[in-house]
């Protein structure tokens, strides 16, 4: 008889807090591996009015797939520019529009990994970073210290989401019953918005839960905000990295039972 192989995430109920459009891929992967994904978007992505820049740039850096989606006017106005992407999901979004990606991180999907790329050690003269409003300035500041003129194009806003009452009640009920196994967060903004969304009593139930964080930096911020449960840190906030970290953790947890 062939032994029954249990799916790697079987039995886990996992809260997915990404914005709705970005949550679909992670939820699908969780379901495919035997887990149950519960969606509660903590942020909403809202497009901003975008005017093509008059200046010509040598390199466009897209921070996320949202930046690609809402920055197509900029992309199409700079046919001479090289293109960089922070992560495989961003690169895939660019490639789906027919654009080749010249620079992408060789390891993790974050600013540090992109800055480590050999082609950015002596970066081109004029660079435009396409991103959402706010966020980290490490990429801009580091490239400026390396001699580039760097400008920002902020093409979307991250807005705290108003929770769907049914989704919120589901999450509250699972927390009340201690049946929500994992809470996943893929950015500090999502973490902060989730904390603000949850009522005080619900937040008190959430903070001891196991947290799947998209980076060690997110996990450290969670500690500062009072999340005292076990933290699982992924190599990046991309779906594949989040799933890999969760699968490794659950495999070890099964062995230790």
Give structural notes.
This protein has eleven helices and ten strands. A five-stranded parallel sheet has the order 2-1-8-9-10, sandwiched between helices. Strands 3-7-6-4-5 form a five-stranded mixed sheet. Helix content is 40%, strand content 20%. The two termini are 25 Å apart. By secondary structure, it is an alpha/beta fold. The longest helix is centred in the last third of the chain and has 18 residues, at 239-256. It is elongated.
Give the SSE layout.
Layout: E1 13-16, H1 20-32, E2 36-39, E3 43-47, E4 59-62, H2 65-70, H3 72-77, E5 82-85, H4 88-96, H5 111-115, E6 126-132, H6 138-145, E7 149-160, H7 165-176, E8 182-185, H8 188-197, H9 200-206, E9 210-213, H10 216-224, E10 231-233, H11 239-256
Parallel strand pairs: 1-2, 1-8, 4-5, 4-6, 6-7, 8-9, 9-10
Antiparallel strand pairs: 3-7
Helix pairs in contact: 1-11
Strand order of the largest sheet: 2-1-8-9-10
Number of helices: 11
Q: How many β-strands, per DSSP?
A: 10
Helix residue percentage: 40-55%
Q: Topology as H/E string?
A: EHEEEHHEHHEHEHEHHEHEH
Q: pLDDT below 50 for ≥5 consecutive residues: which ranges?
A: none
Shape, per Cα inertia axes: elongated
Classify the beta-strand content into a percent band: 15-25%
By secondary-structure content and strand pairing, the structural class works out as alpha/beta
Give the C-alpha Rg: 20 Å
**Average pLDDT over all residues:** 93
- Cα distance, first to last residue? 25 Å
Major pleated sheet? 5 strands, parallel
């Amino acid at each position: 008889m062939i032994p029954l192989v249990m799916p790697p995430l079987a039995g886990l109920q996992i809260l997915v807090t990404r914005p709705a459009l970005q949550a679909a891929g992670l939820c699908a992967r969780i379901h495919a591996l035997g887990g149950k994904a519960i969606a509660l978007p903590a942020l909403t992505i809202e497009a901003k009015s975008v005017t093509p820049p008059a200046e010509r740039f040598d390199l466009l850096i897209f921070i996320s797939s949202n930046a690609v989606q809402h920055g197509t006017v900029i992309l199409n106005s700079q046919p001479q520019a090289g293109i960089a992407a922070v992560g495989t999901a961003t690169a895939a979004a660019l490639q789906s529009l027919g654009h080749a990606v010249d620079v992408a991180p060789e390891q993790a999907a974050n600013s540090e990994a992109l800055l480590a790329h050999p082609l950015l050690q002596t970066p081109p003269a004029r660079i435009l970073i396409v991103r959402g409003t706010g966020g980290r300035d490490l990429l801009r500041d580091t490239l400026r210290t390396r001699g580039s003129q760097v400008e920002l194009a902020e093409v979307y806003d991250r807005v705290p989401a108003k929770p769907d009452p049914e989704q919120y009640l589901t999450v509250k009920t699972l927390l009340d019953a201690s049946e929500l196994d994992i809470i996943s967060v893929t950015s500090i903004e999502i973490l902060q918005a989730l904390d603000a969304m949850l009522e005080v009593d619900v937040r008190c139930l959430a903070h001891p839960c196991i947290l799947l964080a998209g980076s060690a930096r997110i996990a450290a911020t969670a500690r500062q905000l009072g999340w005292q449960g076990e933290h699982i840190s992924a190599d990046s906030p991309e779906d594949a990295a989040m799933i890999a970290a969760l699968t490794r953790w659950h495999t070890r947890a099964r062995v230790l039972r």
